[in-house]
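Subject: for your reference before the review

Hello V.,

The reviewers asked for a structural picture of the protein, and I figured it would be easier to keep everything in one thread rather than splitting it across files. Below is the amino acid sequence we used in the manuscript, unchanged from the supplementary table.
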Amino acid sequence: MSMLIWKKKNNAKHLILFIHGLKGGSDTWAVDKITSFPQLICEDEDFCDAFDIACFEYFTNFTNTYGKSRNLLARLFTSLTKKEVNLPVDELSELLVGECQINLSDYSNIIFVAHSMGGLIAKSCIIKMHERDLSHNITGFISLAVPHSGSETASWASMVSSNVQLGDLSVFSKETDSLNRRWVKLSKLPELKFLYGSYDSIVVKASAIPVQVSAKESIAVQEDHSTICKPKDRDSNVYLIVKKLALEIHNKTELISSSPEFKDDKQYDNEFFVLKMIVADVHSDISKHAKEYYYNAELARNIFTSDRDRETLSVLYRKIREIYQTQYHDSIANHNTANQLLAAIHKKIEDEDKVKLSSLLDTLDSVHKKGMLHQLANKLDRDIIWSPDTSLDSLNSLRGQK
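And here is what came back from the structure prediction:
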């Protein structure tokens, strides 16, 4: 039986998955009987039909009672219904991993919106998917008052209760310590936002914002531990933050995967990467293809603008420059033509696309990476040229003629 409660399911490409915390459920997100966080998104026209909305719901209760049967044997053997118990974060995340693999694998992007203990479940799920090398589509994680370093309130409560979930939420618990240590080792992270309530006395700022989180990924909101997950309307800051991240992830995917057809209307004729090809007498058809690659790379550069995106692109540019340098030296040694050099570099980029040039930006393919080569050549310097005879004077002279 699935643990997903669907609020909107129209076979969309993207999913926003809400994950509640301790002693929570559907009411975690509800302001009243009419208004809830998922419902606000479902009825937001800006989302159109791009997103499905669901909630991951699990059993959680402060008590450890299983019913009113007279003894253990009666409880075990007289009921036909399953006895739900408080499972630890580790086991709850196993259930979420199962849902991701079985019921959610067809989505292009999944964004976790998690409150309190739900954030630890989400975090554990992301870690396990990476550690087990499982293919996944979790591209966003919004942490709402999540006790990444535990909660003092849970610590006090765990002293008078044997609830395993309270133990996981305690300050310096083995679970939070393990998650934090494993999290920082991940080579690939989704887009992140960590929100804390300025009036939250249950999960204080120091716990809601992990030490390694940058200032741009952490946001204060004028809420407490309960209201931070209950935006009253679409003008609430929490709602706007979730909406902004969701639409950014959606737009990146859509623009890259369905970029407009390139039509050469001579807009790149004066770019230096084109002039370098002309000076090197590169075949006109190859130059035309290079313009298309350049166009796609420029599109990608305009889309991936966050600090993490720029850092990832910077690493890619360095790797592509290394490929160019190696192929250029080989071309000189073997007296290859400029056409042969360019073809060899493009072929090498294709070969390395999923290996050396593998990127955290999954939507970038070899077309964009070939274009990144021409972006690097689109400068006055001589770092990337197609012929040993190329000179700055010849480039400037040719540009003047145009």
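For the response letter, the relevant points are probably these. Confidence is low (pLDDT under 50) at residues 63-79. Residues 190 and 251 are 15 Å apart (CA to CA).

Happy to draft the paragraph if you're swamped.

O.
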